[in-house]
Write a structure and sequence with these properties.
This protein has three domains: about 15-120, 2-Layer Sandwich (Beta-Lactamase), CATH 3.30.450.90; about 125-400, P-loop containing nucleotide triphosphate hydrolases (Rossmann fold), CATH 3.40.50.300; about 405-540, no CATH class. About 35% of the residues lie in helices and about 20% in strands. It has 21 helices and 15 strands. The chain has a seven-stranded mixed sheet, with helices on both faces. The termini are far apart.
Amino acid sequence: MIKEPDLFIAIGHVDREATRQLNDLFHDAARLRVSDVHLLYQEGKCQICFRAGGVLEEIVVVDAQTAKQFDEKIRARSQMSQADRHHSLDGRMRLRYVDRSIDVRVSVIPVVGGQKIVCRLLDQANAAMDMQSIRMTSMTRYYLEELIEEPQGLLLVCGPTGSGKTTTLYGLLGALNDGKRNLMTIENPVEYVIPGIGQVNIDQHVSFPDALRAILRQDPDVILVGEIRDAETAKIAVSAANTGHLVLSTLHANNSALAITRLIELGVDPQTLAAALRGVLAQRLVPTVDPDAGFDWQEPSEFDAAWMALHGIDAQGLYFPRLDKGQQFTGKTPVIEMVKADKAVRAAIVSGMGEQPIFNAAARQMQFETLAQAGVRLANEGVTSMDQVRKIVGQDAILPEVRRLGEVLVANRWAELTQITAALETQVTRYKQGRLTRLGEILIEESICTLEQVIDAIGVTEGAVESAFMFVLRGRLTEKELKSTVQEWKVQTKRESLFDMLVNKGYFTKEELYESSFVSCAGRCTTCGAGPCQRAEDRPAPAPNALSRSRIPVSGLA
């Protein structure tokens, strides 16, 4: 077998210079961490652009003769027809330089006046990427690692082209590739080759549905479907997830809730989907600020504050990097929105009411943050800039209608966002130790909030209904009275405390709310899950809430 040459080669002195330019072009692209190289052939010339950091930038325009030689060499190395100029073509090639190897996925399509070649540069380091190297909150990582240990079910990763979906899925495959599972993938095309995994390449001979049916006869434990793009693939994937297989796949959707409704639009039965689904990740990639470049911090501009208000984010106390024009970025960081398919989310799916109920159900989950919240958190940590966050998230916003405990405490200035996030980190640590501790308990333990503050905050959240049921058990009000009050409470435009409404109706007093009515016989607060409850005057004073220029995350306001 003849070994393929490492790089593009010249066949004579006529194309020697063009060959050198083409080899240098791809080497420069890899060195600059370019994701795509665009070659547009029109009007007797070729415009060459690099996409780096999500932005397309023109690099050079070459003459017709050089452009022709570029085309011939790219087609030859990608094993594409030189004669076919009327159909779109796909191929791949590998270039081996002294300091690096590059795998390149090549797409050619006819356009008016010529053709367009787009070369996607694939970093083979992503094939072996460890989940720990993918940046995400500890809450998201905890639930994601828990989810992939499920024996069956469907996990979706959604987002536009170039949002890092494949990298995340390969990270999950790497975590699952322990030699004890039969892992199979169906991709168009296979981007990263992983030893020990059966990978099927989709082409004109094999379709996604046909390959998926065939793989189901291969005794798989885990199936990665490169993309669910039609009704037939969607139904087979969901069916496989319900019959003893863990199915990982991608879907083009703007957010996690839309991914779920998109599957229903493709004809998947909501009941079947609710039974199969385990979770959905929506993600984008933002350029990462070079940590060695140095920058100052600045408060949100009026434009930033207005954009955050549109997405339900309080701008007070936040600071972002002030970047000079031309500030260097290095690499990319994922912005992740994760929805677990718990009981409430499954009920929202079955209801068929669309995205809003799904977001409302997800908002009660500890790890959940919208793409906008996750992006602002990263900017506030100095990872990226607000300009980049606004660019990848956009203006459209579906906001959860549910208020969470952390949000209320921060809005009332009873806690800082940093304190809420630290408490959630503690909560995750305890989960891993097998200890179920509620957020309110940790905040009281750490002397961040008083018991009264936690209970008052819970009174305007969805948790108020469950907590108020304690008074039904104690005979202070009937289920009918509680249900009637809850209905009044939920229709308010600006929701007041459910507890205050019940107090005003004379069912119990504020003192009972803060004392015996919410303290179990074991001395645990049934509202916040705290240990022995203490009156404010008996407890140490909470730490002052002085807002600093610290990097204040906005995630995890559960």
